[in-house]
Specification:
Blueprint: H1 3-8, H2 11-23, H3 28-40, H4 49-52, H5 55-71, E1 81-84, H6 90-102, E2 108-113, E3 118-120, E4 128-136, H7 140-144, E5 149-151, E6 155-158, H8 161-165, E7 169-178, E8 189-194, E9 200-210, H9 211-234
Parallel strand pairs: 1-2, 1-4, 4-7, 6-8, 7-9
Antiparallel strand pairs: 2-3, 5-6, 8-9
Helix pairs in contact: 3-5, 3-9, 5-6
Length: about 240
Amino acid sequence: MSSEFKRTGSPELRADAARADMSYFREPKDRLRDMVAAEVAAKPFSELTSITYDHEGSELAGHVLLDALEEEGFGLDDFDAVGALTAAAIPLACAMLHAAASRGQDLDAFVMDFVYPSIKGPSIKGKRVILLDAWLSEKSYVQTSSLVTLRHGNELSLDFSIVENEGASVAAVAALVGGVDSAQGERPVVHVVDTVTDAASDLPFVEVFHESDLRAEADSADSDDSADSDDQSTK
């Protein structure tokens, strides 16, 4: 929107433009939280594509995911590639790749291929990888028809032999929205079960936003809107 239009438009349009300008002064995570909370509201599950394929949402998600990983001890020097567990995570993996490049660091991305067990992308041999999904919770399996699901709140069933066969090691699992509960003060983990060997292990789980927190925010916003409507109707 041009500055000329802002000056000559209606008061409502000028107010909307001013709010849009001010939003860029907010922290990236707060801006992204508003977008994700609006998408999550009243939905049992979403692949979040309205955000991850949006020009602003994609840029924010790439940087916020890198920041979230770094806060949990996984800086860009601690992993070499990020792998999309599902189709919904592909734009996020690409966003992280470009966010890392803007910081002057190299990060590869790849896609897990469960049809022909392998990966799509550059070789991950000898690399430390982060596995990624857009929304990883007990609802993921029902909605995506992938081989990825959480059972009992924190058990991830996945054929890890795909990654191991490529000569890589998994450092952690991450998601833009997560539904993994943990004891207070403890880092969330996913209990990983290799569906081929039945070998089990725990991996750190890094979630940018927790599903229940987003829903609580959406409910609170709905309550505020309802209260405002009631106030207006009594005037």
